[in-house]
Amino acid sequence: MARQFARYTGLRYSSVARLKWEDVDLAAGVIRHTPPKTKRHNITVVIPLAKILLDELKAARADDPKSTHVLPLHEKAYQYRKLKSGPGTFVEVLKAAKVDDSQHTFHSWRHTFRTRLSEAGVSDDLAKRLGGWTEDATAARYDHAERVEELRAAVEKAG
Question: N or C: which end of the chain has fewer CB within 10 A?
């Protein structure tokens, strides 16, 4: 489920591994979380949950109603983390997809999340809020979409 979090929320592994149930509002279908890296800026991100992730979270909560952490095995493993890709089979997933695992980590999902927001036409300001980025330049580094049609429309509008 950690990869589902990364895919649908853009959260860093440090946030995914340490996410607590108190940060997840299943009734409203959102996560309210202050990522450790942006804590100094006092930024809390509010991330609406995609249905697939919300359904998985509801099932996980029903299976383990007493847990304080959403992914207790990851939380425990994160304390002893030595691999930059985190515990689990992320490297195996990359190998199966024939992706060079020396160039990709769990954090690569954060780039995917930002790029998909861009491809979906989400404004840069809204994408920054969802991802917890404070600087335009930082958020732009995560956006790998070419946005050719958006650029074309701008050129046509200017012409």
Answer: C
